[in-house]
Amino acid sequence: MASDAQHSSARLVQRSPRISGPELVATLVPPPQFDRATFDSYRPDPDHPSQEEARDTLRAFAGPAAPVSRGGFLGFGKKKAEARQGSPTRPGVYLDGGFGVGKTHLLAATWHATAGRKYFGTFIEYTALVGALGYTGALGVLQGAKLICIDEFELDDPGDTMLMTRMIGDLTSTGSRIVATSNTPPNALGEGRFAASDFMREIQAMSDRFVTIRIDGSDYRQRELDGDAVVLSDDAYQFALADASAAGERMTDDDFSELIAHLATVHPSSYAGLLDGVQAIGLRGVHELTDQSAALRFVAFVDRVYDAQIPIAATGIPLTTVFGGGMLDGGYRKKYLRCMSRLNALTAEQVAT
Question: pLDDT per residue over 130-145, tens digit each?
Answer without folding.
Answer: 988 999 999 999 999 9
